[in-house]
Amino acid sequence: MKFEDIALEEKQHTLAQLREVKSLFASRGWFAGTSGNLSVRVGGFDPDRFDFAITASGKDKSQTTPEDFLFVDQDGKPSEATKLKPSAETLIHCEIYRLTGCGAIFHTHTVFNNIVSELFWERKSIPVDGVELIKAFNIWEEEAHIEIPIVSNFAHIPSIVPEVTERLDPRIPGIMLRKHGIYAWGANAFEAKRHLEAFEFLFEYVYRWELLHRK
């Protein structure tokens, strides 16, 4: 489906979802500085052809303006004429959409997700054992164990993409960039929000558990 064939009301609904979740996450202090980015896919999906709305680069996410979001295609290029620039990490969103076909991706930088990414960097994954909120990822085994992948963080964003491709785990709807932040996704904005909230809870749990038990 071409971008121009997507109904206006569908585009407006997508932007409304992004405004709502941006406001919520900003109220929680999850966008320090101008960090973090959010995106929601719009229209049909083919791994080689899709569009999504994403936060514009360098915006104060505690504020709401008409220039907060823009639409881009599967290559991260604007889908329509605009002077706005997409988030510097748009290519990571492109790759996650291509690999998963998900409907939304939310990325935040928090103290806890940064600390645990460094704490378990040599392991290349963050282990979580038996915590109830693992069920948020549709994993229902009693005392379930999961490993949240950690990938390298480079200033050159295209260098991150191959590692995301290699390390993405179909069972875990998220991937952590070392000393940077978590990317969480879902079939839609509601599910991506649920997954992100669960990840952030689990990161704080893991940190506090390690603090109590490491000597």
How far apart are the first and last residues' alpha carbons, in Å? 57 Å
Q: Topology as H/E string?
A: HEEEHEHEEHEEH
What is the number of helical segments per DSSP (H or I, 4+ residues)?
5
The rounded Rg comes to 17 Å
Strand content: 15-25%
Helix content: 25-40%
Uncertain parts: none
Q: Major sheet: size, sense and barrel closure?
A: 8 strands, mixed
What is the 3D form? globular
Total number of strands: 8
- Average pLDDT, rounded to a whole number, is 94
The side-by-side strand order for the widest beta sheet comes to 3-2-1-4-8-7-6-5
Structural class: alpha+beta
Pathway: Amino-acid biosynthesis; L-methionine biosynthesis via salvage pathway; L-methionine from S-methyl-5-thio-alpha-D-ribose 1-phosphate: step 2/6
GO molecular function: methylthioribulose 1-phosphate dehydratase activity
Pfam families: Aldolase_II
Protein name: Methylthioribulose-1-phosphate dehydratase
Short description:
By secondary structure, this protein is of the alpha+beta class. The chain has helices spanning 8-27, 90-100, 111-119, 161-167, 189-213; strands at residues 37-46, 49-55, 69-73, 104-108, 125-129, 145-151, 174-177, 181-186.
What do these coordinates show?
The chain is of the alpha+beta class and 215 residues long. The protein has five helices and eight strands; from the N terminus they run αβββαβαββαββα. The chain has helices at 8-27, 90-100, 111-119, 161-167, 189-213; strands at 37-46, 49-55, 69-73, 104-108, 125-129, 145-151, 174-177, 181-186. It has an eight-stranded mixed beta sheet with strand order 3-2-1-4-8-7-6-5, with helices on both faces. Helix 3 packs across helix 5. The longest helix has 25 residues, at 189-213. The chain is globular, with a radius of gyration of 17 Å.
